Amino acid sequence: MPDAQSSVSPIVPAVKNNPIRLAVLISGGGTTLTNLLDKIDEGKLKAQIATVICSNSKAYEKISAKLAGRGEALGKKEMTSRYGTFEVQKVLRKDFETTSQFSDVIFNFVRETGSDLVCLAGFLSLLDIPDDYANQVINIHPALLPSFGGKGMHGMHVHSAVVDHGVKISGCTVHFADQTYDTGPIVLQKTCPVLTGDTPDDVQARVFEQECEAFPEAIQMIADGRVTITGRTTQIQ
Ligand SMILES: Nc1nc2c(c(=O)[nH]1)N[C@@H](CN(C=O)c1ccc(C(=O)N[C@@H](CCC(=O)O)C(=O)O)cc1)CN2
Ligand SMILES: NCC(=O)N[C@@H]1O[C@H](COP(=O)([O-])[O-])[C@@H](O)[C@H]1O
């Protein structure tokens, strides 16, 4: 008698382009995006940015300034830098009444730009993931899920909770996004110690070093077809 897990067929996330085309969604400082751009530049991640989508004006302004500092030209929507040319879109969460309306506009850009994989890079809003992008959206979370995840758990809130609980090990998790915050299948996790006397800022800095390795590594594994999803788990070949 097969158990529930073995009766589910493995899913391989679809990657049509080589190099893989990424839609990167941001809401904050853009440090996660900057790391991806650096890793592409250094040849450590074989990927192309198809589009960057910002859910608030602050993120749009910050990333525009960062790219302008690194590149030659800055258009209204299209940015040319040494990383190539891609569109930076503003899709502001505050302009939409529902998660569904907001997500529809985002995924229209994702489709238009021929993106294979959507990377939530410090993206703070809930998304409705449409069927054609199920198993094609990944998120990086600054803790070891399933601990310290869910609504309200983002950025420094996570590291403050980690310090308050006196945990000894923290880290980051890259996971596929499903329809709720932080519950999708885990691709990989990297750990770091939490030391006596650490402040949330200390933990954030140590976890972020791990994030800078984990996110590009997970993207490259997906691009190379090494990741399959079975039910709520992933397998790495
Ligand atoms: N469908 C999914 N959407 C999102 C996921 C996901 O796994 N599935 N992950 C989050 C990212 N996330 C942490 O990794 C996270 C981000 C934000 C929050 C949160 O509590 N947000 C606030 C709203 C903030 C805003 O819109 O500006 C809230 O809901 O009150 C929790 C987890 C991204 N989306
Ligand atoms: N739940 C998502 C979350 O907490 N994301 C966290 O935001 C920081 C990067 O922000 P930035 O890329 O906007 O600078 C990162 O620590 C990332 O893990």
Descriptive report:
It is a single chain. With about 240 residues, this protein is an alpha/beta fold. It has one domain: Rossmann fold, CATH 3.40.50.170. About 30% of the residues lie in helices and about 25% in strands. It has five helices and eleven strands; from the N terminus they run βαβαβββαββαββαββ. It has helices spanning about 30-40, 55-70, 100-110, 155-165, 200-225, and strands at about 20-25, 45-55, 70-75, 80, 85-90, 115-120, 135-140, 170-175, 185-195, 225-230, 235. A nine-stranded mixed beta sheet has the order 3-4-5-2-1-6-7-8-9, with helices on both faces. Strands 10-11 form a two-stranded antiparallel ribbon. β10 (about 225-230) and β11 form a beta hairpin. α1 packs across α5 and α4 crosses α5. The longest helix has 24 residues, at about 200-225. The protein starts with 19 loop residues before the first strand and ends with a strand. Residues about 70-75 have low confidence and may be disordered. Ligand LMY7XDAE binds next to β7.
